[in-house]
Design a protein that fits this description.
Length: 171
């Protein structure tokens, strides 16, 4: 489930596979989410979760108060800074943190990442005049290590960023 602006989207293929209807109420949405959770193994096998097969991924984590007030268009512009040849941008989560999961079939597929991060950080810092912190995980093989990669990126922010940019990671 994803929203762009005020328009929510849901994976219709998953609903069809599980014999579910598109939810129209909060209670129905809750039941759909429970069904997705309870059938995660089946969905992963049927749809190769996130549309990728075996490969490598990195987590890029950006923290800035600017992310809270950015509109959907600006968020998409920022996310687009991370498009690289041979790399798929899998997901992003917006609050005062932006989590971007990057996937490549090759372990060395992230060679352009430093430039991507610099452009995204400059966009926030120069355009918005707001502190920005950024952390990046190493390359991990297998999506089951996503939590570990996120923790590595967050620890980088805690250790190396200015106080005002790392507030979300000090708890």
């Amino acid at each position: 489930i994803q929203a762009i602006g005020d328009i929510p989207y849901i994976n219709k293929k998953w609903l069809d596979y599980l014999g579910l209807e598109i939810p129209t109420t909060t209670d129905e949405l809750e039941q759909v989410l429970i069904a997705f959770r309870d059938n995660a193994d089946k969905l992963e096998k049927e749809f190769a979760m996130w549309g990728v097969g075996p490969g490598w991924f990195k987590v890029v984590l950006i923290s800035s108060p600017a992310l809270i007030s950015m509109g959907g268009f600006s968020q998409e512009v920022l996310k687009n800074y991370f498009h690289m040849a041979g790399v798929t941008v899998l997901n992003s989560i917006w609050m005062d943190q932006m989590v971007i999961c990057l996937y490549s079939q090759q372990q060395d597929g992230f060679t352009e990442l430093t430039g991507c991060i610099t452009r995204a950080r400059d966009y926030l810092a120069e355009e918005r005049k707001i502190p920005v912190a950024c952390g990046v995980s190493g390359a991990y093989e297998g999506m089951e290590r996503l939590t570990e990669a996120y923790g590595e990126a967050a620890s980088f922010i805690r250790e190396y960023s200015a106080q005002e940019a790392r507030l979300a990671f000090d708890s």
